[in-house]
Specification:
Helix content: 10-25%
Number of helices: 3
Largest sheet: 6 strands, antiparallel
């Protein structure tokens, strides 16, 4: 059972991180901003990979406490760059830890009997809850599945991203993205960026081809579009991000590897599904 079906993904009915992470680049040709966004997208992909592994373990654990898991679970890196995953439930001023995993030798995932720092548990949990509440206000009634990502910034603040997951039917979707930055205690919102135009669009995975992301209502790419391109770079031959000012594409060749190029807008393409 994958973590997108645990709690970390949700259906809505209602390190160093720059503060611009969710803002759009000013024009599709701003490659320096795009490179910065891509670096953060790589971190989220690393987070995503470890979250799959640890959440699989939590979701299949045959213990009575497994029923107590809430949506406030998260992953983080310690000072040694080892990944941890904390699974439990946050209630007011108490976080009940059910599972604490740590990345061990040779990248094995082990149970850690040490209790995580309580201040970290509280600040992360409050940030996650607030981010869910704010995203739900804009999304309204939506059955799109989302993943959340978390990071502690160099200044101690906390960043939360909420981005579409791969949907049932193996659909890669885009068009909704939420970024919130909170103070170190998870009490005060410091920055936010939201993008949603009433529905998401998606492409069926399984067949390599060129795809075009439609952001024609914006002058530049968004963090969510850069994340989509990097996350699905091996699923599609070329991913074009069309904005009102042109097109940005993630391409690959043997000499340069993956690299970003800009050019004129690509012909529109009908997505495989709308959400």
């Amino acid at each position: 059972m994958k973590y997108t079906y645990l709690i970390g993904i949700f259906l809505l009915y209602t390190g160093v991180l720059p503060s611009h992470a969710q803002k759009s680049a000013k024009g599709s040709g701003n490659l320096s901003v795009i490179d910065e966004m891509a670096n953060d997208a790589k971190y989220l992909c690393e987070y995503d990979a470890i979250a799959w592994q640890m959440s699989d373990l939590a979701a299949t654990a045959l213990t009575p406490d497994a029923k107590m898991l809430g949506r406030e679970w998260f992953c983080y890196q310690d000072i040694h760059q080892k990944w941890h995953g904390v699974y439990g439930k946050f209630l007011d001023t108490t976080y009940k830890v059910v599972f604490h995993y740590v990345q061990g030798e040779q990248d094995n995932i082990d149970l850690d009997c040490n209790e995580p720092d309580s201040a970290m548990l509280f600040s992360y949990s409050k940030s996650i809850q607030k981010a869910y509440q704010m995203a739900a206000k804009l999304l309204g009634k939506s059955y799109t599945r989302f993943n959340k990502f978390l990071r502690r910034n160099a200044d101690g603040s906390i960043s939360i991203w909420i981005l579409p997951a791969v949907q049932p039917g193996n659909l890669a979707v885009y068009g909704a993205e939420f970024y919130y930055q909170f103070d170190r205690n998870g009490d005060k919102l410091l920055d936010s960026n939201e993008y949603y135009r009433g529905s998401c669009k998606g492409f069926k995975l399984g067949k390599s081809r060129d795809v075009n992301l439609d952001y024609s209502d914006l002058p530049g790419v968004t963090f969510g579009s850069i994340f989509f391109a990097w996350r699905h770079r091996e699923d599609f031959s070329t991913i074009y991000i069309n904005t009102s000012t042109g097109s940005t594409a993630l391409k690959f060749d043997q000499q340069k590897g993956y690299h970003w190029v800009t050019g004129p807008k690509q012909p529109p393409e009908t997505a495989s599904a709308n959400f």
